[in-house]
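Repro:
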Amino acid sequence: MQNLLSSSLLSKNVEVKGYRYIILLVVLYGFETWPPTLREGQRLRVFQNRVLRKIFGPKRDEVTEDWRKLHNEELNDLYLSPNIARVIKSRRMRWVGHVARMGERRGVHRVSVGKPEGKRPLGRHRHGWEDNIKMDLQEVGCGSLTGLMWLRNRDVWRALVSAVMNL
């Protein structure tokens, strides 16, 4: 895909669509089911900026007339879509709504709601999937997962997912 992303035969619009519908889907496959660390989130942002720099190419500076790389803010202005962190958060929110609407007899529901047996290792517990969901909901201003009644309403939940995507 590297040759296609920097090809002069394809328009920027086609290259961006190739990134969004092929590369991004492969990179984020299954990402909604596990909590990323800060380092993984940073590496994903670096990856996204590297691909977008490959697509949009260098920019000519008006003052010095030299070619330079695009800054991150310029890439965000050109890309016009949510960054990779927003995509991950919205997919995670969509997945938790899907799991909440499943029946309690389904295996996925039992795994996500259940608590494992046994002792935990010493020290601070790792940041879990539920912690990320709670932080995403607080970002939108909905508090926490106190009741599942509004999780079961698809229209309300879709509005929350789109709110997370558009922050």
